[in-house]
Specification:
single chain; 583 residues; alpha+beta; five-stranded antiparallel β-sheet; elongated
Length: 583
C-alpha cells in the first residue's frame, strides 16, 4: 500500500496542524533568544552613537590645545572701506599702530627708444602701399571715416595715395594729405589758412584715422600722426621682423646672446621672434617683465619687484639690444622705495609696499598699502577664534551628556514603567558622572586666577548636566585681557583642562577613536560575543526541533497507516460475513 501523507485522511484527525502547534510552543526559547539578540543590536547601535559624540568631544577638546589659539591675533584698519591688507602671527603685541604712507614703492623701468620698426614706406611715394599691406600696429578695416563732416570711403585694395586723393575729393580740396618717410607720419593740411580740421563722426565704420594716429585736439589746420606708423612684426623671426636696425653681431648660424641683470638670454635671429625673446626674458631669473609697446613701437623692461633697484642690460654692438633701442637709446626710470612712519616715529623705508618687521620692527605684523595716506591698524587678541573653540567644546560636551541622559532614563506614565535602551548600564552612567566632575574640577599647578571653568564664567545650568556660558562678560574679558592664563588653563600638559578630558575620552573610546578600543569597545565586544552565543543556541534548538518534527511526523504517519490497515481488514470481514448470511 502506498504511504499515506494527507493529515487525517484515514483517522479524521488533523495531526499536521496539531504538530505545528506543538512545534510553535517548542520555539518559544528561540523567540526569547531572538528578542535578546535584537536588544543587544540596539545596545550596540546606541553605543556607536555615543562613540560618535565622544569622538566629536575628543576633537573639540584637542582643538583647545592647538598652538596659537590663545596667542592668535587679528589686525584690521580702522578706516572704513580700506583697501589695505593686513596680517599677523601669534604673539604680535596688541595695540594701535598708525601707518602714515607718504610715498609708495614703484618699479624700475627701462624703456627702449620708439619706432624700432621700419616705416610704412621707404619714400614719400605711397602709391604702391595698399591698406591691406601697410605694416602698422593694427590692421586697417574697410569702411567710412569722416574729415570735416565729409565721409571718405576706403577699401583694403586702395593704396595710401588713393586714400589721400579721396580725402581731397571728399572735402572739395579743403584738406590734403601726405606722408613723410623720414618721420614715418601722415600729415593733414587745411588749404584755407586758419581753418581747423575736424576728424571723425559717431557713424564711422573704418578705423583708418586711429591706425594713422590722427586725432583732433590742436584746433589748427595741421594734424600730424602722433607717432611713427610702422610697426615691428612680433611673431616672425628677427631677421624678417622689419626692424629698422639690422642685427649683425651674430655667428654664422645666427646665434648670439645678451644679458639682463647679469642673466644670459640666448637667441637666434633666423628662428626666434621678438615675442619669443620677450617671453624668454620674462621667464628667466633676471626678475624682469619684458613687453612690447605697440603704440610707441618699442620694448619696455620692468623689474618684477618694487623699490629703487637697478636694471642693467649688456650686449656687443649690433645685437638685439641695439636693434630694439634698449642700449644707448633707452631711458632708465629708477623705482622709488616706500616711505612711511609708524605712530609718528622716524621715516622708514621699504623696497616693497608690504611693510613687515624687517622695516618697522613690530614682530608678526604685515601691512600692505596701496594708497599714500594714513591709516590706523588695530591688533587685538583673536577672541573670536578662542570663543568659537570654547563654545564648540561646550556644545559637544552637552551632546554627550544629553545622549547618556536619554539612553539611560527610566520613565513612568499611567502606571507603566519604560526603560531606555541603556537604562541598566551603570558603567555608562559612571562615565557621565566622571565627565561632569572633570569639567567642574580645578586645574592644579596654575599661578594665575583662572583655575576652573567657573573662572571663565562657565558653569552647569542648575538642575541639569549641561554646561553654559553663565557670564559672557566674564568670559570675554578673560579672553581679551588674560589670554596667557586661559591658555595655561586649557593647554598645560598632562594636568590642563583639555589634556584631562582627552585622557578620559581616550580611556572610553581608545586612542584610535574608532570605538573598537577602550571601555566602549569592551562593551560592544561583550554584546557581539553574546550575539554569537545566541546564534549558536538558536541553531542548536532549530536542529532539535527539526529532529522532533521528523519524529512526530513519522509517528502520525505510522498511526494513519495502522488505522488504514485495520479499516481495510474490517471491510474484508464485513464483506465475508455478509456473503455467508446470504447463502
Amino acid at each position: 500500500m502506498a504511504s499515506i501523507q494527507l493529515s487525517g485522511l484515514v483517522s479524521g484527525f488533523d495531526w499536521k496542524s496539531f504538530m505545528e502547534q506543538i512545534m510553535e510552543l517548542n520555539r518559544a526559547p528561540i523567540t526569547r533568544l531572538q528578542a535578546e539578540k535584537s536588544t543587544n543590536n540596539s545596545k550596540v547601535s546606541a553605543l556607536d552613537n555615543l562613540g560618535t559624540r565622544l569622538n566629536e568631544l575628543q576633537t573639540a577638546s584637542r582643538a583647545l590645545k592647538v598652538d596659537g589659539l590663545f596667542t592668535g591675533r587679528t589686525a584690521a584698519s580702522t578706516t572704513t572701506g580700506s583697501t589695505w591688507s593686513t596680517s599677523t602671527t601669534s604673539g604680535t603685541a596688541t595695540g594701535a599702530y598708525t601707518f602714515n604712507v607718504t610715498q609708495l614703492a614703484t618699479t624700475t623701468k627701462r624703456s627702449g627708444s620708439g619706432d624700432i620698426g621700419l616705416g610704412i614706406s621707404p619714400t614719400n611715394d605711397v602709391s604702391g602701399v595698399t591698406l591691406a599691406s601697410m605694416s602698422t600696429a593694427t590692421a586697417v578695416t574697410a569702411g567710412n571715416f569722416t574729415v570735416n563732416g565729409a565721409q571718405v570711403s576706403v577699401a583694403l585694395t586702395d593704396s595710401l595715395q588713393d586714400v589721400f586723393d579721396k580725402i581731397s575729393t571728399a572735402t572739395s580740396g579743403a584738406v590734403t594729405a601726405s606722408y613723410d618717410s623720414t618721420t614715418d607720419k601722415i600729415t593733414l593740411n587745411s588749404t584755407t589758412p586758419g581753418t581747423p580740421i575736424t576728424l571723425g563722426a559717431a557713424n564711422d565704420t573704418s578705423n583708418f584715422l586711429s591706425v594713422a594716429r590722427l586725432t583732433n585736439g590742436n584746433n589748427t589746420g595741421v594734424i600730424e600722426s602722433g607717432t611713427g606708423l610702422g610697426a615691428t612684426k612680433q611673431s616672425t623671426p628677427l631677421a624678417s621682423a622689419r626692424l629698422r636696425n639690422s642685427i649683425t653681431a651674430v655667428d654664422g648660424s645666427g646665434n648670439v646672446s645678451f644679458t639682463v641683470n647679469g642673466v644670459s638670454i640666448a637667441y637666434n635671429v633666423n628662428t626666434d621672434s621678438l615675442s619669443t625673446i620677450l617671453g624668454r626674458i620674462s621667464g628667466s631669473s633676471a626678475g624682469v617683465n619684458a613687453t612690447y609697446d605697440a603704440a610707441a613701437d618699442r620694448v619696455v623692461l620692468t623689474n618684477k619687484t618694487t623699490g629703487d633697484l637697478g636694471l642693467s642690460v649688456s650686449e656687443a654692438a649690433g645685437g638685439f639690444l641695439d636693434a630694439v633701442g634698449l642700449s644707448s637709446g633707452s631711458t632708465l626710470e629708477r623705482g622709488d622705495d616706500a616711505q612711511y612712519t609708524v605712530n609718528g616715529g622716524p621715516t622708514l623705508t621699504s623696497t616693497s609696499n608690504t611693510f613687515t618687521a624687517a622695516s618697522h620692527g613690530i614682530t608678526g605684523l604685515s601691512v600692505t598699502a596701496n594708497t599714500e595716506t594714513s591709516q590706523t591698524i588695530t591688533v587685538d587678541s583673536n577672541t573670536t577664534g578662542m570663543r568659537t573653540a570654547i563654545d564648540d567644546f561646550i556644545k559637544k560636551f552637552n551632546s554627550v551628556q544629553q545622549y547618556i541622559d536619554d539612553a539611560t532614563k527610566i520613565t513612568s506614565a499611567n502606571g507603566k514603567v519604560t526603560a531606555a535602551i541603556l537604562a541598566n548600564n551603570r558603567e555608562i552612567q559612571s562615565w557621565q558622572s566622571t565627565m561632569r566632575s572633570t569639567a567642574f574640577a580645578e586645574v592644579s599647578g596654575l599661578t594665575g586666577t583662572i583655575t576652573r571653568l567657573e573662572s571663565l564664567g562657565i558653569d552647569f545650568t542648575p538642575g541639569t548636566s549641561q554646561l553654559a556660558v553663565r557670564n559672557p562678560t566674564k568670559l570675554d574679558a578673560a579672553l581679551r585681557d588674560k589670554p596667557s592664563e586661559v591658555e595655561a588653563f586649557f593647554k598645560t600638559a598632562s594636568t590642563g583642562f583639555a589634556a584631562k578630558f582627552e585622557a578620559f575620552n581616550t580611556s572610553i573610546i581608545g586612542s584610535s577613536g574608532t570605538g573598537t578600543g577602550g571601555m566602549l569597545g569592551s562593551q560592544k565586544e561583550t554584546l557581539t560575543k553574546g550575539n554569537t552565543s545566541i546564534d549558536t543556541q538558536i541553531a542548536n534548538i532549530e536542529r532539535q526541533l527539526a529532529s522532533e518534527k521528523a519524529r512526530l511526523e513519522a509517528s502520525f504517519l505510522a498511526m494513519e497507516q495502522a488505522q488504514a490497515t485495520i479499516k481495510n481488514m474490517q471491510s474484508q470481514l464485513t464483506s465475508a460475513f455478509s456473503n455467508t448470511g446470504s447463502s
